[in-house]
Every structure is written in C-alpha cells, then in structure tokens.
Write a structure and sequence with these properties.
This protein has about 220 residues and is of the alpha+beta class. It is built from nine helices and five strands; from the N terminus they run αββαααααααββαβ. It has one domain: 2-Layer Sandwich (Beta-Lactamase), CATH 3.30.450.
C-alpha cells in the first residue's frame, strides 16, 4: 500500500508497518496537498512516498518513461528522463550534478542497498554520465564548493508548464519533521518565485532517450 497526495503513482511504494506511522502519513499527505508549492517526500533511494497536486502539476507535460517518472523516483527522473530539462532549468549544473553528488554520498552510507546499486548500474551504462560521475564530479565539487551541492536553500531555475509561472526560479527547502526522519524519509519543497521577465525561449537540445548531461 502507498500513500499519495495528488496525481497517480505507477508503482506502489512500501510504507511502515506501524498503524500509527501509516496514519501519520495519511495526515501528512493531506497537509502536503493543502500547499500551493510543489512538495515531495522520498526515501534514501529517492523513491517517492508522498507528493502533492502542485508537484504533479509541475511535471504534467512530462512524457512516459519506464523507470524515470518524477512521481516514482526523483533521482532517476533528474538523471535519466530525456524531458527533465524541459522543467528543470539549467538542468546539468543546477540539478543533475548536485543530485549525482548526493547519490555518491548515499552510496557511501548505504553501499549494499539494492535500489541504489540499480541506479549505479544504470549510470554505468551511459558512458558520458558514468565519466561525469567518476571523473567530472569530484572536480566540479572542488570548483563550485560544497554550498553549490547542498539542496536546502538553493535557488534553482524551473520552467513551469502553467503560463502563470512560466520560466521562474524556486527556492529548494528541505524541511523534514522528526517523525518522517525516523521513517527514513526526507521532504523537499520547491517554493516558486514570481515569474522572470519574458525572454526569448531557449531550446534545450537532448538526444532522444538520453539526459542532458556531459562530462564536466
């Protein structure tokens, strides 16, 4: 059984066996859906446990993908979905590389986790992404500093399909109450800012079926 707020999930996610924990997640789902900003709760593999209607709306124009839908696993979406750059602006530097850095840290902590190992195998199958992970990532972290890797507080560009938002920025806020933390979950909210002034649209070019990521 899996809980969700807004949208549909293609794959059910495990939830805590405790009835009290399940009741908490149900109430937390109601809280999320009352928020105007996209908000998501995921586990250490970035498997999505809860997401709200605003999160679903942000990614409503994303095409289908067998393993990398944003409502299933947010890390896989950022790294592997060919449409990720249509929503996540400056996709490589602002989203993909920080996520790769967090993934590397998760592998250090949970090296034998089957879900993380599956993601690592998929990274290895893409020569460009694998080179970015093994060789480019350490250089990038040294160049930009640890602050650029941290999600919480970062201001990152997004391209919202709703024209009322359009091309704008969001403040990434990671705010996880103790109860969620004890379940091994993290909450991330994208606080959307007022839209930027209209500018000539930029075209993000990606090869079909591949993410927009190069060696850094």
């Amino acid at each position: 059984m899996a809980y969700q707020a807004g949208g549909q999930r293609s794959q059910p996610r495990p939830v805590p066996e405790s009835l009290e924990a399940q009741a908490y997640l149900q109430d937390y789902a109601a809280l999320l859906d009352a928020l105007a900003f996209p908000s998501v709760v995921f586990d250490h593999r970035w498997d999505v446990v809860l997401s709200n209607a605003a999160f679903t709306s942000l990614f409503q124009d994303i095409g289908p993908h067998p393993t990398a839908m944003p409502g299933d696993n947010f890390l896989r979406f950022v790294l592997f979905h060919p449409d990720a750059g249509r929503v996540l602006g400056e996709h490589e530097s602002s989203w993909a590389l920080p996520m790769l850095a967090h993934f590397a840290a998760a592998v250090e902590r949970h090296g034998q986790d089957h879900g993380l190992q599956s993601i690592r195998r998929d990274i290895a199958q893409d020569p460009i992404m694998d080179a970015a992970y093994r060789q480019g990532l350490p250089h990038w972290i040294r160049a930009v500093g640890e602050d650029a890797v941290e999600h919480d507080g970062a201001v990152r560009p997004v391209l919202h399909p709703d024209p009322r938002w359009g091309r704008t920025d969001c403040r990434v806020i990671r705010e996880t109450p103790k109860a969620l933390e004890n379940m091994g979950y993290t909450r991330m909210t994208l606080v959307l800012r007022e839209p930027r002034p209209t500018a000539a649209p930029s075209r993000l070019r990606t090869r079909p079926g591949t993410p927009h990521l190069r060696i850094v």
